[in-house]
Specification:
This protein is mostly helical. It has five helices and no strands. The chain has one domain.
C-alpha cells in the first residue's frame, strides 16, 4: 500500500519517535514518583470505589513498564493501549468531577490527562516506526 503522506518516510518515523518518547518520558515521571513513594494514594482511591487495593499495583504497568516499552519501541502498540486504559481508569476514579471544568488559567481541567490519552491512542494507531527496537515492520512493534 502506497503512503498518502507527502513527508519523507524518515520524517514520519522521526515524528513517531518524538511522539512516543515524549509520552513515555512524561508518564515515567509519574511512575518514578510511585516507585519512590508507593501507591498509597491509588490504593485509597480504589478502596473508596469498592475495588481491591491490590489493583493499585497495576499502575506500575501503566506508568513504568508500558512507557519504558514505548520508549525503546518494543511492543509499542500494546504498551500504548495499556497507557490509554490506565488513563481511562484514572479519569474514572479521580477526575470525573473535573470533566466539565476549566483550570485557573482558562484551560480544560483535564487537558493533561486528555493529552496523555489521545497521544497514547495515536501511538497505538501509528506504531513505533523505524527508530525502535521493533523496527518499522518488526514483529514486536
Amino acid at each position: 500500500m502506497q503512503s498518502t503522506s507527502h513527508a519523507p518516510a524518515n520524517a514520519n518515523d522521526a515524528g513517531k519517535l518524538v511522539l512516543r518518547a515524549v509520552l513515555a518520558a512524561m508518564l515515567l515521571f509519574h511512575g518514578i514518583s510511585k516507585l519512590q513513594h508507593g501507591i498509597g494514594f491509588v490504593a485509597d482511591v480504589l478502596a473508596k470505589a469498592g475495588l481491591p487495593a491490590v489493583f493499585g499495583y497495576a499502575v506500575y504497568v501503566g506508568e513504568v513498564i508500558a512507557p519504558l516499552l514505548m520508549l525503546i519501541g518494543l511492543f509499542t502498540r500494546v504498551a500504548a493501549l495499556i497507557v490509554a486504559i490506565n488513563m481511562i481508569v484514572a479519569l474514572s476514579l479521580v477526575h470525573t468531577s473535573q470533566f466539565f471544568t476549566l483550570n485557573d488559567t482558562g484551560g480544560w481541567a483535564l487537558e493533561l490527562q486528555a493529552m496523555y490519552f489521545f497521544t497514547a491512542v495515536a501511538v497505538a494507531l501509528l506504531g513505533a516506526g523505524r527508530y525502535s527496537a521493533g523496527g518499522v515492520n518488526g514483529r514486536y512493534n
